[in-house]
Amino acid sequence: MKKNIIVLGTQWGDEGKGKIVDLLTPQVAAVVRFQGGHNAGHTLVIDGKKTILHLLPSGILHPHIKCYIGNGVVVSLPDLFAEINTLKANHVTVLDRLFISHYCPILLPSHIAIDKAREQKRGATAIGTTGRGIGPCYEDKVARRGLRMADLLDENFLSLRLKELLEYHNFLLTQRYQERPIDYQATLDELLEKKAFLQPMLTDVTASLAKHQAKQETILFEGAQGTLLDIDHGTYPYVTSSNTIAAAASVGTGFGLLNFDEIIGVTKAYTTRVGAGPFPTELLNDEGQYLANKGHEFGSTTGRPRRCGWFDSVALKRAVLINSINSLCLTKLDVLDGLKQINICISYKCDDKEVTTLSAGAKTFASYEPVYQTFPGWQETTLGIKDFTALPANAKNYLNAIEKIVGVPITMISTGPEREQMILRT
Q1: 327-371: per-residue pLDDT in tens?
Q2: For the chain, what is the radius of gyration of the CA atoms?
Q3: What is the C-alpha separation between 426 and 421, in angstroms, rounded?
Q4: Of 166, 184, 237, 410, whose CA is between 20 and 30 Å from 368?
Q5: Does 151 qualify as catalytic in the annotation?
């Protein structure tokens, strides 16, 4: 196994990254989250038991693995505490292995209120956010008015910054959106109440990772959401509020670019997305419903049904380009079992021209008509298969075609939700 590895999504999120991080974790010393917030949802199924993590790195389920939340992550303290308590109730130790950057932005109740009010006001043009305040929190970070974890350590400074910030938030809530204001004192008291509990976990994540590097220990960097939701490179404006691509692993932790060795892109055997936005290969028919039902395609964070469509190799090639992906993990192959034929989008038609490269702008993206290459399906089950040679011939042909079209090897294939339901080709 290479030293420092980034695992990220290549589609619109929900690709199954949590399982892959969980699979690789026994071979590493530390797992790091570097962007996003509790709008992420990484589902792990171990011995039939499902665990959904929103803020904590997926490596937290492994004892003796150190877990870090980097400065690129926005942290909702109530949700962090709820997640820690849930794991504690299931006999998973967290407090002695979890470390949080001093520089993480703090997500407040007012961020959530603004997020929900804004989406409601947009009506039919709503972005389709999770309503968890992620966007407004990142806005405050960029505007240099937000609170950070380090601010909790100075009560006077915290109280002054919070008062100024809530005055701004409450102006928006009451004047712009005609919503109730958020109480300053209650918010301050809640932050101060959590200070003593949080203080031992706050650390210089960059320095900590440098120590692992000095010991030649392997570090795993876990992305949230997916490449096509990147604030700069995704289907803007129907994107998340952070950079979801590989470069964000450095920005969101302070770990130097030359320290990374491998970038693994996780992709489903088909395509899904949650919320609004263009989706060229979407299936609004019985085949789409088949994928949704068999794949249990509901958002792990919001419970919203996911839109389903055929595999989009054009979008995947763009993700490979943006992230410098050098190996792929394909998940949910078993969901395709039973289909008579399966399509791969190999190009788009736009204004009577064939397009083989993806332009990320949503307006252009929405005008793309997919061009498909059709493959025969397979009636045998692939569920739980652990050996590539044991796959049905048509399943192997499908996977080989994806490798050839995209130009990146598929080194891991997930054939079910359980940790051990995996084909490893390296």
Answers
A1: 999 999 999 999 999 999 999 988 888 887 766 555 666 678 899
A2: 22
A3: 16
A4: 410
A5: no
